[in-house]
Structures are given as structure tokens and as C-alpha cells.
Specification:
By secondary structure, the protein is an alpha+beta fold. Helices cover 43% and strands 20% of the residues. It has one domain (7-115).
Length: 116
């Protein structure tokens, strides 16, 4: 698993053909857990490498991608495009996960954000 800062939500590896979901987030609805699994596994099946979704210290949900050195099958250009596509297509999901993290783990008052 690559070095990332913060709390890992989930990850997928094309090399080991494995998916990881952090059980600290077990209260996230199963449908959202399934959507995250599909998102990560499809990404690594299509692009290769390792995809890690993690929260930074401010509660921002980040996507960290790494590939093994000399991995000729890893699609670096496709990776950038796929991440942008995920961020656009799954914007509401990603923002909801950030709010969840800020409320539950950082104990922030998100009531103002919910009114928008």
C-alpha cells in the first residue's frame, strides 16, 4: 500500500487484485460501500496501479494513485482523465463522504453546510 497522509477510506490494487475498506467506516450505508468498491475496482481494472481514497487532516477526500516502477501496463494519462471523470460523475457522493467524515471523525458542526 502506498504512503498516504490521513485516514484511508478504501483502496484497490490491480497487482494483488484486492480491495480494502476501512472498518472504521462500517456505519456508511452498504449501498455507498458497494459504490465505492465498484468505483475503485473498476478504476484499477481499467487503469492499473493502486488507487487509495483517503481523508486529509481537514477532512478533504483525496485520491492517491501509484504504480510500480517499470509497470508498462499502467496508463498514466488515462489515470488523470479517469480521476477527473470520477470527480465529476461522483461529485455528490464524494462531497457527502467529506461531510460524513467531518461530522463523525472531526466532530465539526456541519449544520450550516446542510442548509445550502
Amino acid at each position: 500500500m502506498p504512503e498516504v497522509q490521513g485516514v484511508i477510506l478504501c483502496a484497490s490494487s490491480a497487482y494483488e487484485e484486492k480491495y480494502y475498506f476501512n472498518q472504521e467506516f462500517a456505519n456508511v450505508p452498504p449501498s455507498i460501500q458497494d459504490e465505492l468498491k465498484i468505483l475503485c475496482v473498476l478504476y484499477t481494472a481499467d487503469i492499473g496501479g493502486i488507487l487509495v481514497l483517503h481523508f486529509d487532516e481537514k477532512g478533504n477526500l483525496l485520491m492517491h494513485v501509484t504504480a510500480r516502477e517499470n509497470d508498462l501496463l499502467f496508463d498514466e494519462i488515462g489515470s488523470v482523465l479517469k480521476i477527473k471523470q470520477i470527480q465529476a460523475d461522483k461529485r455528490e457522493l464524494l462531497e457527502a463522504l467529506e461531510m460524513y467524515y467531518r461530522a463523525i471523525f472531526l466532530h465539526e458542526d456541519i449544520s450550516e453546510l446542510l442548509e445550502d
